Amino acid sequence: MRYLMTTKPTDTAPDERLYAEMGRFIEELTAAGVLLATGGLEPGGILVTSSGDEITVTDGPFTEAKEAVAGFALIEVRSQEEAIELARRFRRIVGDGQSVVQQVFGP
Known about the structure:
The structure is a single chain. The protein has 2 helices and 6 strands; from the N terminus they run βαββββαβ. It is of the alpha+beta class. The model has no long low-confidence stretch (mean pLDDT 90). The protein has one domain: Dimeric alpha+beta barrel (Alpha-Beta Plaits). It is globular and about 45 Å long. This is YciI family protein. Residues 1-90 form the YCII-related domain. InterPro entries: Dimeric_a/b-barrel, YCII.
């Protein structure tokens, strides 16, 4: 089962301890074949909207910075419980904030 874990930005600046712990976490998940992709996202983005035959393209940002998605990890695990446990481990490393875990359907 694949899950997309996203996280929102925080006001806390990362320090060397955070980089070291996150590096170990990413290495562990990569070695186990669980982590498929990870990355940060630009705060703006482009909105593409369709209504009938009309398609509109609008440059972002669209939400307050604290509501935007700042980063993601795509994982492949055996169960939702395993995905939640990995999200818990991530939150323990990065501290206060929010992450969302969503199952990804399809091949």
